[in-house]
Amino acid sequence: MKTQNIPKATIKRLAVYIQVLSGLKRDGVEVISSEKLARACSVNPSQIRKDLAYFGEFGVRGVGYYVHELISSIKHSLGVDRVWGCALVGVGNLGRALLRHKEFALRGFSIRAAFDCDPYKIGEIVSGLEVVCTRQLKGRVDEFGLEVGIITTPPERAQRAANYLVDGGIKGIVNFAQARIQVPKEVTVEYVDFTHHFYSVAFNISSAD
Amino acid sequence: MKTQNIPKATIKRLAVYIQVLSGLKRDGVEVISSEKLARACSVNPSQIRKDLAYFGEFGVRGVGYYVHELISSIKHSLGVDRVWGCALVGVGNLGRALLRHKEFALRGFSIRAAFDCDPYKIGEIVSGLEVVCTRQLKGRVDEFGLEVGIITTPPERAQRAANYLVDGGIKGIVNFAQARIQVPKEVTVEYVDFTHHFYSVAFNISSAD
DNA sequence: AAATGTATGTGAAAAAATGAACAATTAATG
DNA sequence: CATTAATTGTTCATTTTTTCACATACATTT
User: What is the rounded distance in angstroms from the CA atom of residue A23 to the CA atom of residue A19?
Assistant: First the structure.
């Protein structure tokens, strides 16, 4: 095990491993080798072993990895073996969809508060959660245990949403808005952009001879 | 300009450039240097110039890049300067959200058909589109000009959805389902997984000292 | 308990991506 | 029309990431 700075690509792959391992577990598979797991994930077997080596030794030589145990180990390594409280800012179409999306809670990301600056939306109940004025955000961070911010505003309001989150002491933001945001360097921002995937597919189709 | 195989990371960044450049254009900026654009995108200026160099020479030395022109050039390079017809398979919560999401059409990805295998959903109208039995997919590919598949099924049905798309002659798939799929190598698959971004944020917060 | 087969963990090599540096080119200025 | 200032396109060095190869370790069999 090494305490280097871990590549972002590794984190991304670990998420894939969890996904595939969870599927294997559903199918009753108890042990798997890096080679078979690699095939299912479309990566190189060494890659998997190396990725895991950043965090510890989880396998048994000559045997492989115990599926259930490995899932737990990876989740623990990533810090997702607990529930994270999330604050959503921007109750538009996308925001509503995320509030209703059950998958997040299942994976340990519990949306506990929804904020919007539109007076017509404030007070509305979406998926059992009351929409609150964004100005109230700071005051609810501790009360609701909000740790991660989710921005689902239109692009022009993304920066303001980010400011509210940062001001509230939030240290991690997942930004679904179509805009870059500026935050202090101690705050982590992840940009979610579906269109990039579409562009990638379009490019690949286009450039196939 | 070089005709090498272009890194996936470059494609991803090009999408970011388009996003930021579009914002600049909205704000009336006509010319921008790689340095300023780089700052807005949180990347290195050389990186931008290098990424663009894969596709041509779009700048003017001593001046910079003409914003509007650069957007067009990048879009053309990616093959997204036209409309792509899309088929969505799986009309659940996420599928419905995507069908209602106007952003896709704005960016050139027009969802022209929605498929599901659930008899209760077939015939339903979602966002002006009738839900059709997935078996009908192949027959509608040509008629509707379907080129890109979007999978929004539960994980256990993702592979079947992929099979229908591949069988229909679709060459590019954007997979929102929580499962890996197997397709012939001439078919491009992009996996969309929000949770990866959440994991990344959780990991960063956790490992911050 | 020795031998055998298997699959991990890791160090070294190869490949790829990034960043710095600079020559080339343009516009503006005197 | 030469000079200056600015900024691109591109080469080269550096860093990072990926892949290979093998010693190490475990389980099973004889």
Answer: 6
